[in-house]
Design goal:
mainly alpha; 4 helices; about 50% helix; about 0% strand; rod-shaped
Length: about 90
């Protein structure tokens, strides 16, 4: 009988550890900060990109957001070839 009791204890401890791990992960996820990256603006300048495929739309970003463009990107901005990865469309 002792081996069966030992297996039940190990199983119970593993189940408790699993439940605590799941609880910790859920706690972390629910307390994570909200999204801070600006979405793709819904204005006349960006309206043509709302329905395009991501890769197709991203080809046009540098027209306005290049260093000499109308609205250049700030220093330290991440790589310019994945714009819609962060700036989601609504």
């Amino acid at each position: 009988m002792p081996p069966t009791s030992n297996k039940k204890t190990n199983s119970l401890l593993l189940n408790i550890a699993f439940a605590l791990s799941c609880g910790a992960i859920l706690f972390f996820l629910f307390n994570a900060p909200g999204e801070t990256t600006a979405k793709l603006p819904k204005d006349p300048d960006h309206s043509r990109f709302q329905d395009m495929d991501k890769k197709e739309a991203e080809r046009f970003c540098t027209e306005c957001h290049s260093p000499t463009g109308v609205y250049p990107l700030p220093d330290g901005h991440p790589p310019k070839y994945r714009c819609l990865f962060c700036h989601k469309r609504d």
